[in-house]
Design brief:
The chain is α/β, with parallel strands linked by helices. It is built from 8 helices and 15 strands. Strand 5, helix 4 (about 95-110) and strand 6 (about 115) form a beta-alpha-beta unit. The longest helix is centred in the C-terminal third of the chain and has 20 residues, at about 305-320. Keywords: NAD.
C-alpha cells in the first residue's frame, strides 16, 4: 500500500482526535498541521503549526482533513480542490446549501474524493443494526426515533444544535433505512441567549414510508445518544455512546388458524444484547476515506450525501420558522 501524505486543518476539540487517528491509520502519514489559533491541546508533536490553508497545501499533501468551524469549510475546501487534494470536511458540509453545492461541484469537476465526517455511520452499533436489517432480522421497518441530548458545548459558536447535532441523526437515519427524507416538520427553542437554536424536535417521513422522529438539544444535564428502530419483528436500540445494540423481540406467536391470524398487536419477547468487535468510529471513518482516495471500495460519506443531509436540516429549520411541514 502506498503512503498518502496527509494534512490537517484545525486542531481544536475534534481536530486533536483527527491528529491522533491520522498517525495510527496504515498507509497514511500526517506530515502537516495548520491552525491560526496554534496548538491548544499539544498534538503537533514534532510538526510545526502552520498559519493557514495555503501553507498546508504548500507542504505537498495528497489528502486533507478540515476540522475548523463550519463557516470556514467552503473556503478551505475550494482551495484544496483547486490544488488537487482529496478532502474530508467535518460535518455539516457547509454553512449553507449554496456553499455546499459549490464544494460538491469543485471536487466532482476535479475528479477528487470529497467526503464529509458523518461519523455516526461508522459507529459499531449502527453498522450492526444496518447489517441485521438488511438480513431481514427486523422485517419491515416502521419507525426510526433518535434522542441526542446533552449540555451546551461552548466551543460551538457559528451554528445551532440542528446543524451541529441533528445532522448526525438525519444522516444516520437515511443511511440505516436506505431511504431519503420526503417531509419534515420541526419546532425549535432559543434558551441560552444565542442567535442559534439550542433545541429542535423534528418529525417526518422517508420516501420508503418510515416515520422518523429526532429530539436534539443542548439543554439537558445528561448525555443521551439513542437510536430506536422499530419494525415488524421487534425493535433495535442502538446506544452510540457505548456502541451497544440491543434487540427487543416481538413475542407474539403467529397463529396458524388463518381466519383469526390478522394482526392484533405485539407482546414482549426475548431481549438480546449483541456481542461484537467495537472499533473506534473515527478510525473506521479514516480508513474508509483512505480507501476511497486509493480508488478502492469504500463506505465513505460523499459530499453529495452530506449536502442532502444539510438540505433536510435546512428544511427542518424552515419548517420551524414557518410553522408548516416542508416537502423535500
Amino acid at each position: 500500500m502506498m503512503t498518502l501524505r496527509a494534512g490537517l486543518l484545525g486542531v481544536g476539540m475534534m481536530g486533536r482526535h483527527h491528529a491522533r487517528v491520522l498517525r495510527e491509520v496504515d498507509g497514511v502519514e500526517l506530515v502537516a498541521i495548520a491552525d491560526p489559533g496554534g496548538d491548544p491541546h499539544g498534538v503537533a508533536g514534532e510538526l510545526q503549526i502552520l498559519p493557514d490553508i495555503d501553507a498546508l497545501i504548500a507542504e505537498g499533501i495528497d489528502l486533507a482533513v478540515v476540522a475548523v468551524p463550519t463557516q470556514f469549510h467552503e473556503d478551505a475546501a475550494l482551495k484544496l480542490a483547486a490544488a488537487g487534494v482529496h478532502t474530508l470536511v467535518e460535518k455539516p458540509i457547509a454553512h449553507s446549501l449554496e456553499a455546499g453545492q459549490r464544494m460538491v461541484d469543485a471536487f466532482r469537476d476535479a475528479g477528487l474524493v470529497g467526503a464529509v465526517g458523518h461519523i455516526e455511520r461508522f459507529n459499531p452499533a449502527l453498522q450492526q443494526a444496518r447489517r441485521r436489517i438488511e438480513a431481514g432480522d427486523l422485517g419491515a421497518v416502521y419507525q426510526i426515533a433518535t434522542r441526542r441530548q446533552g449540555t451546551f458545548p461552548a466551543r460551538i459558536a457559528d451554528v445551532g444544535v440542528a446543524k451541529d447535532l441533528a445532522s448526525h441523526d438525519v444522516d444516520l437515519t437515511a443511511w440505516v433505512a436506505q431511504s431519503t427524507y420526503k417531509t419534515v416538520f420541526a419546532q425549535t427553542t432559543f434558551k441560552s441567549g444565542r442567535e442559534h437554536e439550542d433545541m429542535i424536535a423534528i418529525t417526518g417521513r422517508l420516501e420508503s414510508g418510515v416515520i422518523v422522529n429526532h429530539l436534539v438539544n443542548w439543554l439537558s444535564p445528561m448525555k443521551e445518544r439513542l437510536t430506536v428502530i422499530t419494525g415488524e419483528k421487534g425493535a433495535f436500540v442502538a446506544d452510540t455512546s457505548t456502541g451497544d445494540l440491543t434487540f427487543y423481540a416481538n413475542g407474539t406467536i403467529p397463529l396458524e388458524w388463518e381466519s383469526v391470524s390478522s394482526f392484533r398487536g405485539v407482546s414482549e419477547g426475548d431481549v438480546i444484547r449483541y456481542s461484537y468487535a467495537k472499533r473506534e468510529p473515527l478510525r473506521v471513518e479514516h480508513e474508509a476515506f483512505r480507501d476511497a482516495v486509493l480508488g478502492e471500495q469504500s463506505d465513505v460519506v460523499t459530499m453529495e450525501q452530506g449536502l442532502r443531509t444539510l438540505a433536510v436540516v435546512e428544511g427542518a429549520l424552515d419548517s420551524a420558522r414557518g410553522g408548516t411541514s416542508v416537502a423535500l
